């Protein structure tokens, strides 16, 4: 069974803004370090070790976090940070859904899906009575 790969690390800054960083940036930094170290010691070929270390980092968030906190500095990550778009939150009775501002994609939902709720609203018509 293969493990799910970590795609992004999300940050919320003190001003409330949300940012993401590709996990690959951290994984590459870590893998390059260990592949160079191990290859120089004769513990294997650089490319093989690099690939193994990439997979270790991308499947274990503790490895990513440890490397980020203990081995990377601001200059290593700032050029790669992406500002996340804040979602709109709409209330549909007891149902809550978040719709991304830049599209109609559903990013999160509780209970009834947004499509089902919109269909229900359409059926009611303008006066709120079911047709």
Explain what this protein looks like in three dimensions:
The chain has 131 residues and is of the alpha+beta class. Helices cover 45% and strands 20% of the residues. The chain has five helices and six strands, in the order ββααααββββα. It has helices at residues 23-41, 46-59, 61-71, 74-77, 114-124; strands at 8-12, 18-22, 82-83, 88-92, 95-99, 106-109. The radius of gyration is 22 Å and the shape is elongated. The termini are far apart. Residues 88-115 and 127-131 have low confidence and may be disordered.
Task: Based on the model shown, name its key terms.
131 residues; alpha+beta; three-stranded antiparallel beta sheet; 5 helices; 20% strand; disordered C terminus
Quick summary of this structure?
This protein is α+β, with helices and mostly antiparallel strands and 131 residues long.
Task: Count up the helices.
Answer: 5
Proportion of residues in β-strands: 15-25%
Q: Write down the overall geometry.
A: elongated
Q: Note the main sheet.
A: 3 strands, antiparallel
Q: Provide the spatial order of strands within the biggest beta sheet.
A: 1-2-3
Structural class, judged by helices and strands?
alpha+beta
Number of distinct beta strands: 6
Instruction: Compute the CA-based radius of gyration.
Output: 22 Å
The helix content, as a percent range, equals 40-55%
Topology:
Blueprint: E1 8-12, E2 18-22, H1 23-41, H2 46-59, H3 61-71, H4 74-77, E3 82-83, E4 88-92, E5 95-99, E6 106-109, H5 114-124
Helix pairs in contact: 1-2, 1-3, 2-3
């Amino acid at each position: 069974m293969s493990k799910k790969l970590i795609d992004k690390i999300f940050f919320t800054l003190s001003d409330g803004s949300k940012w993401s960083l590709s996990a690959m940036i951290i994984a590459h930094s870590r893998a390059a370090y260990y592949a160079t170290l191990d290859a120089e010691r004769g513990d294997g070929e650089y490319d093989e070790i690099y690939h193994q270390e990439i997979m270790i980092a991308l499947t274990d968030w503790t490895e990513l976090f440890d490397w980020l906190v203990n081995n990377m500095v601001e200059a290593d990550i700032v050029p790669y940070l992406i500002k996340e778009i804040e979602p709109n939150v709409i209330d549909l009775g007891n149902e809550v859904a978040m719709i991304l501002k830049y599209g109609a994609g559903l990013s999160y939902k509780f209970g009834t899906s947004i499509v089902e709720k919109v269909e229900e609203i359409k059926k009611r018509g303008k006066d709120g009575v079911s047709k």
